[in-house]
Amino acid sequence: MQTHPTVVIGAGPYGLSVAAHLNAARLPTLVFGKPMEFWQGMPHGMKLRSAWSASSLSAPGGAYNLDSYRTAIGAPQQLPIPLPFFIDYGLWFQRNAVPDLDPTYVESVTVDGGGFRVGLVDGRTVSAGRVVVAAGIDRYAHVPGFASRLPESVASHTRAHHDFGLFRGATVAVVGGGQSAIESAALLHEAGAQVELIARGPIRWLKLHDYRGPGRRLLYAPSDVGPPGLNWLLHFPLVFRRFPVRTRKAITRRAVRPAGARWLIDRVVGQVRITTQTEVLRATHEPKGVCLQLSDGSTRLVDHLFLATGYRPNVQKLPFIPPSLAGRVRQRDGFPVLDRWLESSVRGLHFVGGLADHSYGPICRFVSGADVAARQVTASAARTPAR
Ligand SMILES: Cc1cc2nc3c(=O)[nH]c(=O)nc-3n(C[C@H](O)[C@H](O)[C@H](O)COP(=O)(O)OP(=O)(O)OC[C@H]3O[C@@H](n4cnc5c(N)ncnc54)[C@H](O)[C@@H]3O)c2cc1C
Predict the structure, then answer these.
(1) 166-177 pLDDT, tens per residue?
(2) Nearest residue to 54 (alpha-carbon basis) of 36, 16, 81
Protein backbone atom coordinates (compact mmCIF):
# COMPACT_ATOMS: atom_id res chain seq x y z
CA MET A 1 0.00 0.00 0.00
CA GLN A 2 1.29 3.45 -0.89
CA THR A 3 1.39 5.51 2.27
CA HIS A 4 2.60 8.78 0.77
CA PRO A 5 1.33 10.29 -2.46
CA THR A 6 3.19 10.85 -5.68
CA VAL A 7 3.91 14.56 -6.05
CA VAL A 8 3.93 15.95 -9.59
CA ILE A 9 5.79 19.26 -9.96
CA GLY A 10 4.44 21.29 -12.87
CA ALA A 11 1.09 21.44 -14.65
CA GLY A 12 2.07 21.74 -18.30
CA PRO A 13 1.28 19.00 -20.84
CA TYR A 14 3.59 16.50 -19.10
CA GLY A 15 2.58 17.12 -15.49
CA LEU A 16 -1.12 17.08 -16.40
CA SER A 17 -0.78 13.89 -18.44
CA VAL A 18 1.17 12.08 -15.72
CA ALA A 19 -1.38 13.20 -13.13
CA ALA A 20 -4.31 12.12 -15.33
CA HIS A 21 -2.88 8.60 -15.57
CA LEU A 22 -2.05 8.41 -11.85
CA ASN A 23 -5.54 9.63 -10.96
CA ALA A 24 -7.16 7.11 -13.29
CA ALA A 25 -5.12 4.34 -11.64
CA ARG A 26 -6.39 5.60 -8.27
CA LEU A 27 -2.89 6.19 -7.01
CA PRO A 28 -2.72 9.01 -4.45
CA THR A 29 -1.40 12.04 -6.30
CA LEU A 30 -0.74 15.71 -5.60
CA VAL A 31 -0.06 18.09 -8.49
CA PHE A 32 1.49 21.51 -7.96
CA GLY A 33 1.81 24.36 -10.46
CA LYS A 34 -0.28 26.75 -12.52
CA PRO A 35 -1.91 24.95 -15.44
CA MET A 36 -0.39 25.63 -18.88
CA GLU A 37 1.59 28.56 -17.49
CA PHE A 38 4.53 28.33 -19.91
CA TRP A 39 2.16 28.32 -22.88
CA GLN A 40 0.32 31.37 -21.62
CA GLY A 41 3.55 33.36 -21.96
CA MET A 42 4.13 32.41 -25.60
CA PRO A 43 3.76 35.05 -28.34
CA HIS A 44 0.32 36.37 -29.33
CA GLY A 45 -0.49 35.09 -32.79
CA MET A 46 1.71 31.99 -32.48
CA LYS A 47 0.55 28.71 -33.96
CA LEU A 48 1.67 25.23 -33.04
CA ARG A 49 4.13 23.56 -35.35
CA SER A 50 3.09 20.10 -34.20
CA ALA A 51 0.33 18.28 -36.06
CA TRP A 52 -3.15 17.71 -34.62
CA SER A 53 -2.32 14.03 -33.94
CA ALA A 54 0.73 15.10 -31.92
CA SER A 55 -0.84 17.80 -29.79
CA SER A 56 -3.16 16.00 -27.40
CA LEU A 57 -2.39 15.65 -23.75
CA SER A 58 -2.66 12.07 -22.53
CA ALA A 59 -5.24 10.34 -20.36
CA PRO A 60 -6.04 6.60 -20.36
CA GLY A 61 -8.05 5.41 -23.35
CA GLY A 62 -7.38 8.63 -25.25
CA ALA A 63 -9.90 10.46 -23.05
CA TYR A 64 -9.88 14.26 -23.20
CA ASN A 65 -7.89 14.38 -26.43
CA LEU A 66 -8.12 17.25 -28.92
CA ASP A 67 -10.93 15.55 -30.82
CA SER A 68 -13.07 15.23 -27.67
CA TYR A 69 -12.39 18.88 -26.88
CA ARG A 70 -13.39 19.97 -30.37
CA THR A 71 -16.60 17.96 -30.08
CA ALA A 72 -17.29 19.29 -26.57
CA ILE A 73 -17.06 22.92 -27.66
CA GLY A 74 -18.46 22.37 -31.15
CA ALA A 75 -15.46 23.89 -32.93
CA PRO A 76 -13.98 22.85 -36.28
CA GLN A 77 -10.47 21.43 -36.50
CA GLN A 78 -8.08 24.34 -36.94
CA LEU A 79 -4.71 23.79 -38.61
CA PRO A 80 -2.14 24.91 -37.75
CA ILE A 81 -3.46 24.94 -34.19
CA PRO A 82 -3.72 28.50 -32.85
CA LEU A 83 -2.06 29.07 -29.47
CA PRO A 84 -5.25 30.25 -27.64
CA PHE A 85 -7.12 27.12 -28.81
CA PHE A 86 -4.34 24.90 -27.43
CA ILE A 87 -4.18 26.75 -24.10
CA ASP A 88 -7.96 26.52 -23.68
CA TYR A 89 -7.75 22.83 -24.51
CA GLY A 90 -5.04 22.29 -21.86
CA LEU A 91 -7.14 24.10 -19.24
CA TRP A 92 -10.20 22.03 -20.20
CA PHE A 93 -8.11 18.86 -19.90
CA GLN A 94 -6.97 19.96 -16.44
CA ARG A 95 -10.52 20.70 -15.25
CA ASN A 96 -11.70 17.28 -16.40
CA ALA A 97 -8.76 14.94 -15.81
CA VAL A 98 -6.87 16.68 -12.98
CA PRO A 99 -9.50 18.69 -11.10
CA ASP A 100 -7.69 18.64 -7.74
CA LEU A 101 -4.64 20.58 -8.84
CA ASP A 102 -2.94 22.92 -6.36
CA PRO A 103 -1.50 25.99 -8.15
CA THR A 104 1.16 26.61 -5.49
CA TYR A 105 4.80 26.43 -6.58
CA VAL A 106 7.17 23.89 -5.13
CA GLU A 107 10.16 25.46 -3.41
CA SER A 108 12.21 22.46 -2.31
CA VAL A 109 12.50 18.71 -2.57
CA THR A 110 14.62 16.88 -0.02
CA VAL A 111 15.12 13.23 0.80
CA ASP A 112 13.25 12.22 3.91
CA GLY A 113 13.74 8.67 5.12
CA GLY A 114 12.82 6.41 2.20
CA GLY A 115 10.78 9.13 0.49
CA PHE A 116 10.80 12.89 0.00
CA ARG A 117 9.71 16.06 1.73
CA VAL A 118 8.31 18.65 -0.64
CA GLY A 119 8.28 22.28 0.52
CA LEU A 120 5.84 24.78 -1.01
CA VAL A 121 6.34 28.52 -1.39
CA ASP A 122 3.49 29.20 1.03
CA GLY A 123 5.36 27.39 3.82
CA ARG A 124 3.45 24.11 3.74
CA THR A 125 5.32 20.82 3.39
CA VAL A 126 4.08 17.44 2.22
CA SER A 127 5.58 13.96 2.36
CA ALA A 128 5.90 12.13 -0.93
CA GLY A 129 6.66 8.53 -1.74
CA ARG A 130 7.59 9.54 -5.25
CA VAL A 131 8.31 12.83 -7.03
CA VAL A 132 7.80 13.49 -10.72
CA VAL A 133 9.61 16.58 -11.99
CA ALA A 134 7.56 17.99 -14.89
CA ALA A 135 8.82 21.56 -14.57
CA GLY A 136 9.52 22.22 -18.26
CA ILE A 137 12.36 24.08 -19.93
CA ASP A 138 11.40 27.70 -19.34
CA ARG A 139 14.27 28.42 -16.96
CA TYR A 140 16.83 27.06 -19.42
CA ALA A 141 16.53 29.73 -22.12
CA HIS A 142 19.98 29.91 -23.71
CA VAL A 143 21.64 33.31 -24.15
CA PRO A 144 24.78 32.99 -26.30
CA GLY A 145 28.06 34.44 -25.07
CA PHE A 146 28.01 37.42 -27.45
CA ALA A 147 24.80 38.67 -25.83
CA SER A 148 25.40 37.73 -22.23
CA ARG A 149 26.49 41.22 -21.15
CA LEU A 150 23.79 43.17 -22.96
CA PRO A 151 20.90 44.53 -20.91
CA GLU A 152 17.51 42.87 -21.46
CA SER A 153 16.14 46.20 -22.66
CA VAL A 154 18.09 45.73 -25.92
CA ALA A 155 18.73 41.97 -26.17
CA SER A 156 16.34 39.32 -24.99
CA HIS A 157 15.46 35.69 -25.48
CA THR A 158 12.29 35.08 -27.50
CA ARG A 159 10.96 33.49 -24.33
CA ALA A 160 10.57 36.95 -22.79
CA HIS A 161 8.06 38.17 -25.39
CA HIS A 162 4.34 37.87 -25.55
CA ASP A 163 3.26 41.06 -27.28
CA PHE A 164 5.26 41.87 -30.41
CA GLY A 165 3.23 45.03 -30.95
CA LEU A 166 5.71 46.71 -28.59
CA PHE A 167 8.25 46.60 -31.44
CA ARG A 168 6.17 48.53 -33.96
CA GLY A 169 8.54 50.88 -35.82
CA ALA A 170 11.68 49.36 -34.29
CA THR A 171 14.56 47.70 -36.11
CA VAL A 172 15.02 44.17 -34.84
CA ALA A 173 17.54 41.43 -35.60
CA VAL A 174 16.31 37.92 -34.87
CA VAL A 175 19.12 35.42 -34.35
CA GLY A 176 18.34 31.76 -35.04
CA GLY A 177 17.07 29.50 -37.80
CA GLY A 178 14.40 27.36 -36.16
CA GLN A 179 10.63 27.63 -35.94
CA SER A 180 10.78 30.08 -33.06
CA ALA A 181 13.17 32.43 -34.92
CA ILE A 182 11.24 32.29 -38.17
CA GLU A 183 7.83 32.71 -36.54
CA SER A 184 9.14 35.56 -34.38
CA ALA A 185 10.44 37.28 -37.52
CA ALA A 186 7.01 36.89 -39.14
CA LEU A 187 5.13 38.16 -36.09
CA LEU A 188 7.50 41.10 -35.61
CA HIS A 189 7.16 42.08 -39.26
CA GLU A 190 3.37 41.83 -39.07
CA ALA A 191 3.46 43.96 -35.92
CA GLY A 192 5.23 46.73 -37.86
CA ALA A 193 8.90 46.15 -37.00
CA GLN A 194 11.70 46.24 -39.55
CA VAL A 195 13.17 42.77 -39.24
CA GLU A 196 16.29 40.89 -40.24
CA LEU A 197 16.60 37.17 -39.61
CA ILE A 198 20.21 36.08 -39.10
CA ALA A 199 20.94 32.35 -39.14
CA ARG A 200 24.19 30.42 -38.74
CA GLY A 201 23.07 27.85 -41.30
CA PRO A 202 20.52 27.84 -44.13
CA ILE A 203 16.81 28.42 -43.56
CA ARG A 204 15.13 25.05 -44.04
CA TRP A 205 11.42 24.48 -44.58
CA LEU A 206 9.39 21.46 -43.56
CA LYS A 207 7.73 21.16 -46.97
CA LEU A 208 6.48 17.59 -46.67
CA HIS A 209 5.19 18.06 -43.16
CA ASP A 210 1.76 19.44 -44.16
CA TYR A 211 1.04 16.56 -46.50
CA ARG A 212 -2.30 15.02 -45.47
CA GLY A 213 -2.71 12.42 -48.24
CA PRO A 214 -3.09 8.65 -47.86
CA GLY A 215 0.67 8.10 -47.42
CA ARG A 216 0.85 10.42 -44.41
CA ARG A 217 1.10 7.54 -41.92
CA LEU A 218 4.04 6.02 -43.79
CA LEU A 219 5.91 9.30 -43.73
CA TYR A 220 4.97 10.51 -40.26
CA ALA A 221 4.17 8.73 -37.02
CA PRO A 222 1.32 10.29 -35.03
CA SER A 223 3.87 11.74 -32.59
CA ASP A 224 5.29 13.77 -35.47
CA VAL A 225 8.88 14.30 -34.26
CA GLY A 226 11.72 14.15 -36.80
CA PRO A 227 11.87 13.72 -40.56
CA PRO A 228 10.37 10.81 -42.51
CA GLY A 229 12.53 7.76 -41.93
CA LEU A 230 13.42 8.70 -38.36
CA ASN A 231 10.14 9.68 -36.82
CA TRP A 232 8.76 6.15 -36.53
CA LEU A 233 11.88 5.22 -34.54
CA LEU A 234 11.49 8.27 -32.29
CA HIS A 235 7.85 7.35 -31.81
CA PHE A 236 9.07 4.37 -29.75
CA PRO A 237 11.37 5.87 -27.12
CA LEU A 238 11.63 2.57 -25.26
CA VAL A 239 13.37 1.20 -28.35
CA PHE A 240 15.30 4.41 -29.05
CA ARG A 241 16.78 4.45 -25.54
CA ARG A 242 18.53 1.13 -26.22
CA PHE A 243 20.69 2.64 -28.96
CA PRO A 244 24.28 3.66 -28.09
CA VAL A 245 24.63 7.22 -26.81
CA ARG A 246 26.54 8.37 -29.85
CA THR A 247 23.86 7.07 -32.23
CA ARG A 248 21.11 8.65 -30.13
CA LYS A 249 22.89 11.99 -30.23
CA ALA A 250 23.37 11.85 -34.01
CA ILE A 251 19.71 10.94 -34.57
CA THR A 252 18.56 13.68 -32.19
CA ARG A 253 20.68 16.31 -33.97
CA ARG A 254 19.11 15.38 -37.27
CA ALA A 255 15.60 15.04 -35.88
CA VAL A 256 15.42 18.48 -34.35
CA ARG A 257 17.65 20.46 -36.67
CA PRO A 258 16.38 24.01 -37.15
CA ALA A 259 13.56 24.33 -39.68
CA GLY A 260 10.36 26.28 -40.16
CA ALA A 261 6.82 25.15 -40.94
CA ARG A 262 5.79 25.60 -44.55
CA TRP A 263 2.94 27.93 -43.62
CA LEU A 264 5.54 30.49 -42.57
CA ILE A 265 7.22 30.76 -45.98
CA ASP A 266 4.95 33.45 -47.43
CA ARG A 267 5.01 35.38 -44.19
CA VAL A 268 8.80 35.62 -44.19
CA VAL A 269 10.35 35.19 -47.63
CA GLY A 270 10.24 38.54 -49.41
CA GLN A 271 8.88 40.19 -46.26
CA VAL A 272 11.93 40.33 -44.00
CA ARG A 273 15.62 40.50 -44.74
CA ILE A 274 17.17 37.05 -44.41
CA THR A 275 20.90 36.57 -43.88
CA THR A 276 22.02 32.95 -43.78
CA GLN A 277 25.31 31.12 -43.14
CA THR A 278 26.32 34.04 -40.94
CA GLU A 279 27.17 34.19 -37.27
CA VAL A 280 27.04 37.07 -34.86
CA LEU A 281 30.60 37.47 -33.59
CA ARG A 282 30.14 40.45 -31.26
CA ALA A 283 27.30 42.56 -29.98
CA THR A 284 27.86 45.86 -28.21
CA HIS A 285 25.44 48.19 -26.52
CA GLU A 286 25.66 51.66 -28.03
CA PRO A 287 23.68 54.84 -27.41
CA LYS A 288 21.53 54.20 -30.51
CA GLY A 289 20.96 50.47 -29.98
CA VAL A 290 22.95 47.28 -30.42
CA CYS A 291 25.82 47.04 -32.87
CA LEU A 292 26.34 43.57 -34.35
CA GLN A 293 29.52 42.37 -35.99
CA LEU A 294 28.77 39.50 -38.33
CA SER A 295 31.05 36.75 -39.59
CA ASP A 296 30.72 38.02 -43.21
CA GLY A 297 32.51 41.21 -42.12
CA SER A 298 29.41 43.40 -42.12
CA THR A 299 27.82 45.24 -39.20
CA ARG A 300 24.27 46.12 -38.20
CA LEU A 301 22.84 48.67 -35.81
CA VAL A 302 19.44 47.61 -34.46
CA ASP A 303 17.10 48.75 -31.71
CA HIS A 304 16.66 45.25 -30.37
CA LEU A 305 18.26 41.83 -30.64
CA PHE A 306 15.91 38.85 -30.42
CA LEU A 307 17.60 35.64 -29.36
CA ALA A 308 15.77 32.61 -30.70
CA THR A 309 18.64 30.50 -29.48
CA GLY A 310 16.87 27.63 -27.82
CA TYR A 311 16.96 25.99 -24.41
CA ARG A 312 19.65 23.99 -22.61
CA PRO A 313 18.10 21.86 -19.88
CA ASN A 314 20.30 21.05 -16.91
CA VAL A 315 19.21 19.15 -13.84
CA GLN A 316 21.71 21.06 -11.66
CA LYS A 317 19.81 24.26 -12.36
CA LEU A 318 16.46 23.18 -10.92
CA PRO A 319 16.03 25.67 -8.09
CA PHE A 320 13.92 23.35 -5.95
CA ILE A 321 16.43 20.47 -6.00
CA PRO A 322 19.32 21.22 -3.63
CA PRO A 323 22.86 20.43 -4.80
CA SER A 324 23.07 17.56 -2.31
CA LEU A 325 20.16 15.80 -4.05
CA ALA A 326 21.07 16.86 -7.61
CA GLY A 327 24.58 15.44 -6.99
CA ARG A 328 23.05 12.02 -6.36
CA VAL A 329 21.26 12.03 -9.73
CA ARG A 330 23.42 10.26 -12.30
CA GLN A 331 23.79 12.66 -15.23
CA ARG A 332 25.16 13.04 -18.69
CA ASP A 333 25.65 16.51 -20.20
CA GLY A 334 23.34 17.96 -17.56
CA PHE A 335 20.51 15.50 -18.27
CA PRO A 336 19.50 12.89 -15.70
CA VAL A 337 20.16 9.34 -16.86
CA LEU A 338 16.78 7.61 -16.61
CA ASP A 339 15.61 4.03 -16.71
CA ARG A 340 12.63 2.80 -18.69
CA TRP A 341 10.28 4.18 -15.99
CA LEU A 342 11.87 7.64 -16.32
CA GLU A 343 13.24 7.13 -12.85
CA SER A 344 16.64 8.57 -12.00
CA SER A 345 19.39 7.00 -9.93
CA VAL A 346 17.60 8.43 -6.88
CA ARG A 347 14.84 5.91 -6.25
CA GLY A 348 11.39 7.45 -6.60
CA LEU A 349 12.62 10.61 -8.38
CA HIS A 350 11.36 10.79 -11.98
CA PHE A 351 11.94 13.38 -14.69
CA VAL A 352 9.61 13.92 -17.65
CA GLY A 353 9.60 16.44 -20.51
CA GLY A 354 12.74 18.15 -21.81
CA LEU A 355 14.98 16.84 -19.04
CA ALA A 356 14.27 13.27 -20.20
CA ASP A 357 15.60 14.00 -23.68
CA HIS A 358 18.96 12.30 -23.20
CA SER A 359 17.43 8.95 -22.23
CA TYR A 360 14.12 9.00 -24.09
CA GLY A 361 14.98 11.03 -27.17
CA PRO A 362 13.65 14.22 -28.70
CA ILE A 363 10.00 13.15 -28.43
CA CYS A 364 10.33 14.41 -24.83
CA ARG A 365 10.70 17.96 -26.11
CA PHE A 366 7.19 17.85 -27.52
CA VAL A 367 3.66 17.37 -26.26
CA SER A 368 3.42 14.02 -28.04
CA GLY A 369 6.00 12.47 -25.69
CA ALA A 370 3.70 13.01 -22.71
CA ASP A 371 1.73 9.84 -23.45
CA VAL A 372 4.57 7.36 -23.08
CA ALA A 373 6.01 9.30 -20.13
CA ALA A 374 2.67 9.24 -18.29
CA ARG A 375 2.22 5.52 -18.93
CA GLN A 376 5.70 4.60 -17.77
CA VAL A 377 5.61 6.68 -14.60
CA THR A 378 2.18 5.34 -13.70
CA ALA A 379 3.23 1.75 -14.35
CA SER A 380 6.22 2.31 -12.10
CA ALA A 381 4.10 3.81 -9.33
CA ALA A 382 1.64 0.93 -9.57
CA ARG A 383 4.26 -1.82 -9.52
CA THR A 384 6.75 -0.56 -6.94
CA PRO A 385 5.61 -0.57 -3.35
CA ALA A 386 5.94 2.99 -2.15
CA ARG A 387 7.39 4.16 1.06
C1 LIG B 1 7.85 28.99 -28.74
C2 LIG B 1 7.62 27.52 -28.51
C3 LIG B 1 6.76 26.82 -29.33
C4 LIG B 1 6.54 25.45 -29.11
N5 LIG B 1 5.68 24.81 -29.95
C6 LIG B 1 5.44 23.49 -29.74
C7 LIG B 1 4.52 22.77 -30.58
O8 LIG B 1 3.96 23.30 -31.53
N9 LIG B 1 4.28 21.46 -30.28
C10 LIG B 1 4.89 20.80 -29.26
O11 LIG B 1 4.63 19.63 -29.05
N12 LIG B 1 5.78 21.47 -28.46
C13 LIG B 1 6.07 22.77 -28.69
N14 LIG B 1 6.96 23.44 -27.89
C15 LIG B 1 7.64 22.68 -26.84
C16 LIG B 1 6.79 22.73 -25.59
O17 LIG B 1 7.28 23.72 -24.76
C18 LIG B 1 6.76 21.41 -24.92
O19 LIG B 1 6.26 20.44 -25.81
C20 LIG B 1 5.83 21.36 -23.70
O21 LIG B 1 5.61 22.60 -23.12
C22 LIG B 1 6.43 20.43 -22.70
O23 LIG B 1 5.54 20.33 -21.62
P24 LIG B 1 6.06 20.30 -20.13
O25 LIG B 1 4.89 19.96 -19.29
O26 LIG B 1 7.28 19.47 -20.03
O27 LIG B 1 6.59 21.77 -19.85
P28 LIG B 1 5.81 23.15 -19.63
O29 LIG B 1 4.72 23.31 -20.60
O30 LIG B 1 6.86 24.20 -19.58
O31 LIG B 1 5.17 22.98 -18.19
C32 LIG B 1 5.97 22.96 -17.03
C33 LIG B 1 5.23 23.69 -15.95
O34 LIG B 1 5.92 23.51 -14.72
C35 LIG B 1 5.70 24.66 -13.96
N36 LIG B 1 6.70 24.75 -12.91
C37 LIG B 1 8.01 25.03 -13.04
N38 LIG B 1 8.61 25.06 -11.83
C39 LIG B 1 7.64 24.78 -10.93
C40 LIG B 1 7.62 24.68 -9.50
N41 LIG B 1 8.73 24.88 -8.77
N42 LIG B 1 6.46 24.40 -8.89
C43 LIG B 1 5.32 24.19 -9.61
N44 LIG B 1 5.28 24.31 -10.97
C45 LIG B 1 6.43 24.58 -11.61
C46 LIG B 1 5.77 25.80 -14.96
O47 LIG B 1 5.03 26.88 -14.48
C48 LIG B 1 5.15 25.19 -16.18
O49 LIG B 1 3.79 25.54 -16.33
C50 LIG B 1 7.20 24.79 -28.07
C51 LIG B 1 8.08 25.50 -27.25
C52 LIG B 1 8.29 26.84 -27.45
C53 LIG B 1 9.24 27.58 -26.55
Answers:
(1) 999 999 999 999
(2) 81
pLDDT < 50: residue spans in the chain: 1-2
Place domain 6-140+311-383 in its CATH homologous superfamily.
FAD/NAD(P)-binding domain (3.50.50.60)
State the Cα–Cα distance between residues 344 and 376, nearest whole angstrom.
13
Q: What's at 244, amino acid-wise?
A: P
- pLDDT, tens digit, for every residue of 284-325? 999 999 999 999 999 999 999 999 999 999 999 999 999 999
CA of 290 to the centre of ligand 1 (A): 30
Residue from 11, 8, 6, 7 nearest 93 by CA: 11
CATH code assigned to 145-204+258-307? 3.50.50.60
In angstroms, the CA 271 to CA 264 distance is 11
* Spatial separation of the C-alpha atoms in residues 259 and 204, rounded to whole Å: 5
Ligand 1 binding pocket includes 311 (Cβ within 6 Å): no
Task: Annotate 187-210 with DSSP letters as a single string.
Answer: HHHHTT-EEEEE-SS---EE-STT
Q: Cis bond leading into 80, ω under 30°?
A: yes
CA of 138 to the centre of ligand 1 (A): 7
DSSP 45-65: T-B--S-GGG-----GGGTT-
Output the CA 58–ligand 1 centroid distance in Å: 15
